[in-house]
Amino acid sequence: MDVLGAWRAFVNVSERGSFTEGAAATRVPQSVASRRIAALEKHLGERLFDRSSRGAILTQFGRDLLPSAKRLVRLADDMEHEAEQAKLSPLRLAVPDICTVRDLARLDVEARRKGIYLHFHAALPAERAGLVRSREVRAALVAVPPGDATWSVRLGLAGAADLPVKTVYAETLRAGRTARSSRRSRIWIQPEDDVPHIRDRMFRIRDAIGLQPAQVGVSTTLTTAAAEVLGSTDLLLCSVGQAEELGLHWRPLGEIQLVRGFEVSAAVGDDAERIRTRLRHPIARCLGAHDRDSEHDQDDTHHQVGAHDQDGGTPSRSST
């Protein structure tokens, strides 16, 4: 028995004194309203209406229950209203600060179409994870190793000058005998990539190929790193999308394949699943993790990642 529906029909019929008008107010056929009230009477063991009279006349038992029934229906209506309002409450989502305003706006538009209202909080990787733990945000796109990621973004090296090669090998940044007095080019790691599965692997490559410690460093901000690259022969570790936005020329990194991984972390599991399933593709676009790029990256991996990525060795290349 639909208990709430039965009490709603009871209240509407009693207020209007008619099964026909009460059923219309309940938005059900008269036969349905009659069946619900009959089922309620059977459940309670007493009659609510005197059916021998003209119209719908409450029995004494029905009059006694009417105030409580009205409170129940009113409470149910209030709960439905609050549920609708809760759907409109913004879901505070911590996002990488590398996401552009345009991409976040497009993500917001598509989220609204799917009944999700977002409020963005841009933050660095370590901060995003902390915001979820402290419940300052309901969810966050956190940095994770690519094997644990829902979204993956391939990284490479980008410079101000167009590079005349398809792949850049970091070992070519070593100073040769003829360049000892010149400034050595550096590779800049931006704050978004200052995470162990990217930073530490880049440092290991630096040490394995004999670069100076200062030739691979972490910048305090992306703006600072971009300025260093735009004004010199330095290179920025970044995604294709970032390189295009900054007007840089991007190439894959030869010694190793580095990938940003993102996953949803939320204080409530339902929030994480809702974001992951309903907004998977809009978030991919916002992060620069396009499906076609992922498929292309998988094909390229077989050609561009050497055996060192499996056994720790570093292949030697003589050209940039």
UniProtKB/TrEMBL annotation:
Keyword list, A-Z: DNA-binding, Transcription, Transcription regulation
Location of the HTH lysR-type domain: 1-59
Matches recorded under InterPro entries: LysR_HTH_N, WH-like_DNA-bd_sf, WH_DNA-bd_sf
Pfam family, one: HTH_1
Residue runs in coiled coils: none
Keyword DNA-binding part of the UniProt annotation: yes
Disordered: region residues: 289-320
MF GO annotations: DNA-binding transcription factor activity; transcription cis-regulatory region binding
Biased composition (Basic and acidic residues): 289-311
PANTHER family listed in its UniProt record: HTH-TYPE TRANSCRIPTIONAL REGULATOR (PTHR30126), HTH-TYPE TRANSCRIPTIONAL REGULATOR CYSL (PTHR30126:SF39)
Family label: Belongs to the LysR transcriptional regulatory family.
The name this protein goes by in its record: DNA-binding transcriptional LysR family regulator
Organism of origin: Streptosporangium album
